[in-house]
Amino acid sequence: MRKGMFLIALLMAALPLAGADLQVYFIDVEGGQATLIVSPAGQSMLVDAGWPSKDGPGADRVVMAAQAAGIKKIDYLLVTHYHLDHVGGVPEVAAKIPVGTFIDHGPNNETDPGAQALSAAYEKTIARARHLVVKPGDRIPLKGVDIAVVSANGETIKEPLKGAGEANAACAAVKPKENDPSENARSIGFILSYGRFRMVDLADLTWNKENALVCPNNLLGTVDLYMVTHHGMDISNSPAIVEALHPRVAVMNNGAHKGGSPRAWWVVSHSPGLEDLWQLHASAEAGPKHSADEARIANPEMSGCQGHWIKLTARNDGTFTVLNSRNGASKTYRVK
Fold it and tell me: What pTM value is reported for the model?
């Protein structure tokens, strides 16, 4: 058997049987975000689109993931906030794959020339498209799953989600940081639920806004999978929110030279109850001592990144599998 065919067979064998499963592709755009969600009902949502091609990877890697998922249309494209590594690739993605509805938090709050150029390119892209502005407490209507918006445009939910609301003892040791006026603090964050499985993606939400979601009471509840906030930077990933979420598994969407800070890695990797941390990329700053095991890193090289993704497959009974497309390494997490 040829090596390439053997690897494909290995990858397929590592996955749960096909059926009504949730699929999530964490795409390596080298320090930005592009996450493709395919619901059990067959609808898709792309969370951000990485960089414009002149600045880094984005559209081409999204297309590769969409092809692997068998997706010919993106039903919803969610722009979490207006920074180059998140919204920059949107015009190119929209030119390559049809998009049904664009979702954002409203107008860009940054006004420098670079921000204005990003806004102009995005507004041109969505000018004749369906467009949805969301706020905390809204639901994103992706069929087959429940997606609750918990932060948007600098605001956060005020009432706990179902099953949440307990006091958070970790808040006592966490002090606020200086106020963040940037688009990061205005990121759209959401909790996705499919049966007994729950995952959270807070995009680039920063420290004080994270804490607003879990202090003094945890308004989010616990999750199975934590998309490590802000590429694993230490201006996010407050111990108060990480401990409140109590994830079983974390996925960090860092790049070789962006994110993956040792402090954030330590907070996440030492979270009570965490079983495994997976990373899209090795971190030059952190080095092997402050990184996931090599088998759970999708792209270990410091240059010449191949763009391998990490894939999640989840069943409604709460069982889920995480797969590294680089080497076929996978692990299934059974319901506890």
Answer: 0.93
